[in-house]
Amino acid sequence: MNDRGAVTSLMMATLALVALLCLAFADAANVLLARSRAQTAADAAALTAAVEQWPFLGGGSDPPTAARRMAEANGAELELCECPLRGSRADVEVSVPTRVRLLGAAPRRVTAVASASVDPGALFREPTGSGP
């Protein structure tokens, strides 16, 4: 093999490695993006469920149904909702599918959890800030 053939082989190996790294970075970015979407959906679903736990605050829906609707509106699937009517807090878990799996190493779905609570008594207390 001459010098020109060795350089060509080295360049091909380098290009293959660069392509593999690009695919790995694309998979990692996809998972990070899906995790961000899942956390946003979980936060929104938990807040919605917490408000719906108290009928005089919410829109008349039961907390799990409201959480499911909010999760779906954010592209997620509600996996778990521990949000009893008039409860002290709402705990939810949602999952989001990953969109692109170039190397097959990325998970098919990512999950996120969130909790939220509403203090209905705060509506009836006077503010405790320092006034003018």
What's the structural domain tally?
Answer: 1
Uncertain residue segments: none
Q: Strand content of the residues, in percent? A: 15-25%
What quaternary form is this?
A: single chain
First CA to last CA: what distance?
87 Å
Can you offer a commentary on this structure?
By secondary structure, this protein is of the alpha+beta class. The protein has one domain (3-124). It contains 2 helices and 3 strands. It has helices spanning 3-52, 63-73, and strands spanning 77-82, 90-97, 109-116. A 3-stranded antiparallel beta sheet has the order 1-2-3. Strand 1 (77-82) and strand 2 form a beta hairpin. Helix 1 (3-52) packs antiparallel against helix 2. It starts with a helix and ends in a 16-residue tail after the last strand. The mean pLDDT is 87.
Task: Summarize the entry for a quick read.
About 45% of the residues lie in helices and about 15% in strands. The chain is α+β, with helices and mostly antiparallel strands.
